[in-house]
Amino acid sequence: MTDTQIVERTITFVKETLKGAEGGHDWFHIERVFKNTLLIAQEEKVDILVVSLGALLHDIADAKFNNGDETVGPKLARRFLSEMEVNKNTISHVIHIIENISFKNSLEENKGNRFSSLELEVVQDADRLDALGAIGIARTFNYGGFKNRELYNPNIAPNLKMSKEEYKKTKAPTLNHFYEKLLLLKDKMNTDTGKKLALGRHEYMVDFLKQFYKEWDPLVSNTGFTVQSP
Fold it and tell me: Which is it for the CA torsion 125, 162, 228, 156, positive or negative?
């Protein structure tokens, strides 16, 4: 089976598996990450099959939709790739990407010991780009609605020092997520291309927040707005 055939079969598998998924983590999210991955990969010397499969399978069974079980996705991806008789080294690399791509893993105390690869960094940047800008805003509020969270509560401050477990269990208002993750991503990008693409999306979110607070309480001055605290 050629690399192109492997990718095409993977696309079909992912589309079928994610039918009915939450709107921020559905096939269209995967497709955007896949395209961002190929865009970034143009400037990096990476294994195109590995980054393609990593992008397509990175959210095949997101832990937050599987009772927090982080092993479901890697197991499903490994079984699928093994059935296609994909090279074992390629499978191992793709599984490594799936297991380490998440933002929440950067909150672990031992994150400095986590092995990386350029392929992981490319797919991770592509995934983070989809959490930024207009798409990132839409996905954030879509998921907040899915979880029936408040849009914003001035009495609940963002927690900027969350552990991985706290992050996984948070039920904070949706707007807090901007401070607890989205606004931090610009400085966590790995590749030069990812950093450049993230900058404009970051500024778009800052402008959105300024407008949000202005509309939330038009009687209060927002001249002191910063991205550090609402």
Answer: positive
The Cα 16–Cα 140 span in angstroms is: 24
Our measurement of the distance from residue 93's CA atom to the centroid of its chain's CA atoms, rounded to an integer in Å, reads: 18
In terms of residue numbers, what domain contains 200? 3-216
**Could you read off the pLDDT of 60-108 as tens digits, one per residue?**
866 565 655 678 889 999 999 999 999 999 999 999 999 999 876 665 5
Whether residue 222 is contained in a domain is answered as no
With beta carbons less than 8 A apart as the criterion, state whether 118 and 44 touch. Answer: yes
> How far is it, in rounded angstroms, from Cα 219 to Cα 228?
22
* Residue 17 located in a structural domain: yes
Contact 189, 202 (CB under 8 A): no
Count of structural domains within the chain: 1
On whether residue 225 sits in a domain, the answer given is no
CATH number at residue 16: 1.10.3210.50
d(CA 195, CA 199): 6
pLDDT digits (tens, 9 = 90+) for 175-217: 999 999 999 999 999 999 999 999 999 999 999 999 999 999 8
Q: Residue 50 corresponds to which amino acid?
A: V
pLDDT at 223: 47
**Burial of residue 28, with CB atoms counted within 10 A of its CB: 0-12 exposed, 13-18 middle, 19 or more buried:** middle
